[in-house]
Amino acid sequence: MNKGVYIVVGMAALCFIILGILRITSVASLTGKWMLYFAIAGTLLAIADLINFIWECYGQKSKRLIYSFFIIVECVLIAGAIFSIFVLHHINLSIPVKTVNAASDALTLFGLGIAFISMLLKSLRVQKYTSS
Asked: Residue 26, Cα to own-chain centre: how many angstroms?
């Protein structure tokens, strides 16, 4: 990634941290649907990160077609995450509160699971290289 991408990603992360702090202090108010959209984005980004890691570890010796597939899937997941944050809340969806809460909870837990798997695999890779 180039320097500009790092800056944008870092600033987005900082904004979400600030939003979390504002939410805890009740300065910001977020509806259940907003939380669902954030859960969708977080899950998609966690999956994209895991796919990227798998490609780095195992796919580099693969054919160009497989590489293209990994890139397309990763881009679609990242685009879906951005879409869920910036566009979904503008679409008038009438979803029952119970469904919103259940989906938000499920996606949050699923995304956390994927993030932990990704962290585990990255730690194992580092451990493998440092012990060799």
From this structure: 25
User: Which residue, 33, 51, 41, 48, is CA-closest to 16?
Assistant: 41
2-59 confidence digits (pLDDT tens):
688 789 888 999 999 999 999 999 899 888 999 999 999 999 999 999 988 888 877 6
Q: What angle do CA 22, 113, 9 make, to 5 degrees?
A: 50
pLDDT, residue 126, reads 79
- The closest alpha carbon to 103, from 23, 28, 17, 38, belongs to 38
Joined together, the tokens standing for residue 102 give 């259940």
Q: Residue for token digits 């180039």?
A: 2
53 in Cβ contact with 121 (< 8 Å):
yes
CA distance 58 to 38: 30
- Retrieve residue 49's tokens: 């990160």
Q: What is the pTM of this model?
A: 0.84
- 33, 89 in Cβ contact below 8 A? yes
Number of C-beta neighbours around residue 114 at 10 A: 20
